[in-house]
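Q: How would the structure tokens look for this protein?
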Amino acid sequence: MAQISMRIDDEVKRKAEIACDALGLNMSTAINLYLVKLGNEMRIPFEVSVDPFYAPANQKMLEESIKQLEEGNGTQHNLIEVD
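A: Here is the predicted structure in token form.
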């Protein structure tokens, strides 16, 4: 059996551990599942795309809006559900 050593961002690891725990898996099993699927299908087994919500410009705008609300400026509104 082979062993892999890798570096990963602390926050990424923390979130992955929470997800694994919720699924009843350990990190090693989750990574093995990914690698088996990658090897069998010869593709990354999920869509790889950019979510514009996490774009730096959008995050900066959201942080500024939150700051304005916390300072008593701006207008708070309810979120709109989009189908």
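The domain at 10-70 is CATH 1.10.1220 (Arc Repressor Mutant).

The two ends are 47 Å apart (CA to CA).

Upvote if useful.
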